[in-house]
């Protein structure tokens, strides 16, 4: 009696072909990261953009320049430019009176002046409406452009100038950042090869996301993770990465059976061996964790700015731009810098849909970099 082997079904062939495509695509991404000659790009707020935002204001042309000091003092007291304090009130004989929106309800700017600052009703030859910069210049090049329109107050920031120079990271830093991003792809490769995720491969590459968490003070990988939404809808890669960091600090809620607490690194022995073979020069492991109670009596910890609290001071490397949930989790985890490789055009919260890191209302802000490919 012979035993036959069932030929592969069409679905099985598609799975194998897609799996091979994923591996080749991961290889291509790693190769492109290796060959990239570009520096990384910071993801900054819209106020760093090329488009100059303008707002309409009313300007008065003074009759006698000798009255400018009195005019400005009076206007600052009675019609302060609360949202336009980056603008100088006077430019030659022109004085900014108020934003155009202030005179809603008044028939003219003359009527507004007569009803609001009556003592200045005869101080101007005429009035005109004009556009001025809505926001303060952040960079030297912006300052030069803004000044062509209206005189602005400006305080140069050397760090911001360097950040936007296109040459922020030196060659050593770039090599480190690229290495950790390549590691995120290798973590994804390992999980794909060692799990049943290949059984639902229709668009898996579009959604895969690996994460690497690094302590830059000791140049060491603290935690790694891979997306597990197939089994738990909130176990995105960034969420798992934060939880894995918590495990190095005697915490964590999603425990894996292969996690060894004495490693000071929340990663399985098998994956750790794989990564060490792929990246022999990379260091793995976290600093000794000191609780708040213990740190209260430790003079060194008292003066530390980097912890101990989850991802404080840490860099997080993600294949894909994190969603809103993950981005807010990274805010609460106090990450220092976020690096991502691919835009998440539908759900990305750090570049594509919004730039969460630029929201002034948040109580923590991190820097964001991309541009690996």
From TrEMBL:
InterPro entries, per the entry: CMP_dCMP_dom, Cytidine_deaminase-like
UniProtKB keywords: tRNA processing
GO cellular component terms, A-Z: cytoplasm; nucleus
Domain CMP/dCMP-type deaminase: 210-341
GO molecular function: tRNA-specific adenosine-34 deaminase activity
GO biological process: tRNA processing
Keyword check for tRNA processing: yes
Keyword Iron attached: no
Pfam hit, one: dCMP_cyt_deam_1
Similarity section: Belongs to the cytidine and deoxycytidylate deaminase family. ADAT3 subfamily.
Descriptive protein name: tRNA-specific adenosine deaminase-like protein 3
Lineage summary: Eukaryota, Metazoa, Ecdysozoa, Arthropoda, Hexapoda
